[in-house]
Amino acid sequence: MSLTGEGTAAPAAPPGERAARRRPAAAPGGSAGPRTGLVTARARHRAMGVFLVTPFTLLFLAFLVAPLGYALWLSLRTSTLVGGDHFSGLANYKQAFTDHQFLGGLARVALFGLVQIPVMTGLALLGALLIDEVSSRLAKLFRMTLFMPYAVPAVIGALMWGFLYSPTFGPVQSIAHALGLGSVDLLGHSLMLTSLGNIVTWQWTGYNMIVLYAALQGLPREVYEAAKLDGANQIQTALRIKVPMISSALVLTLMFTIIGTLQFFTEPRVLRPIASSVITPDYTPNLYAYNLAFQYSEFNYSAAISFALGAVVFVGSYIFLFLTRRRSGLK
User: Fold this and answer.
1) 89 within 8 A of 76, measured Cβ to Cβ
2) Backbone angle region of 84, left / alpha / beta, with phi > 0 → left and psi within -120 to 50 → alpha
3) Do 324 and 330 touch, CB atoms closer than 8 A?
């Protein structure tokens, strides 16, 4: 090896000359060549993407971002007859988190969820495991029957159950009298949360069951065969293989259920005219915000209550996902 490097390698070309060597020769007649065509295709592709996304972006800004921005602006202001409309900062939020009516509604909804969510999720999981195990026309009929209440609008479902619950003309009261059970007031103080939980469970169990059933259908059947060869029975296969393998779908349905429970509104709103002594205007946080805005015209404070509820929902969902992320695999 020569210490001077003579005869071992050609001297390095300047950077400009190396770039000229890599650059393809221009096409005859002044054509831009394939590189220009590639740039044009990318620009056309990008323009098409922007064109396709623009309608959604405009709707998103008009119907979600703009209303939320306006509600946030309202929540930071106070309007009174004496003081007029003025900026009050976080005063409405301080009042919201010390408002016993708002906190009482949150506590009531939390109590409702502690009982209703496990019951509904358990029924949905049981139904999904049953129709996954049985493949017959009866399973299809069961699946369709359980899913059917989800197709009924929530208002119609609440009206129907309100008729059944009614102590004056409902059939439940007549049946209780005929059986000698006496008067059963399903819309009274002691049974109201149970009656509302029954409506929600009736309506949403089928939906959750379909989500879990779809997750079960995606599992590899070879695992079931291996468990069967190892001597596992159907219950052991369900509890030790199927349920753990669909834990991500289970956590997802639980999270959606928690969010929906904290936003509980339709059923108490529909039943309130026939149970006004029990379902007060502040029965749930959403109902409280609604009545503040449309009965008492306290739009600023109602907006603050809504954002405070949104913050509670966000924090609750985050804590739930944080606690279950290792088991479910969700991130």
Assistant:
1) yes
2) left
3) yes
Q: How far apart are CA 127 and CA 208, in angstroms?
A: 10
DSSP string, 61-78: IIIIIHHHHHHHHHHTEE
- Which residues share a beta bridge with 87? 77
Q: Model confidence over 296-330: pLDDT tens digits?
A: 999 999 999 999 999 999 998 888 888 887 665 55
Q: How far is CA 169 from the centre of its chain?
A: 37
Token reading at 110: 């939390």
Neighbours of 88 (CB within 10 A): 19
Residue with tokens 């309100």: 162
Q: Are 85 and 78 in contact (CB under 8 A)?
A: yes
Cβ(201)–Cβ(124) under 8 Å?
A: no
79: nearest Cα among 296, 290, 298: 298
Name which of 4-13, 38-47, 164-173, 315-324 the model is least confident about: 4-13
* Residues whose CB falls within 8 Å of the CB of residue 200, separated by 6 or more in sequence, listed in order: 116, 120, 261, 264, 267
pLDDT in tens, 233-274: 888 999 999 999 999 999 999 999 999 998 899 999 999 998
Q: How far apart are CA 126 and CA 239, in angstroms?
A: 11
Which residue do the tokens 């949104």 mark?
A: 310
Q: Which two tokens stand for residue 308?
A: 């405070």
Taking CA atoms, 150 is separated from 113, 206, 267, in Å, by: 19, 7, 14
Helix then strand then coil, % of the chain, to nearest 5: 75, 5, 25
CB 133 within 8 A of CB 234: yes
Eight-class DSSP state of 136: S
Place of tokens 């405009």: 58
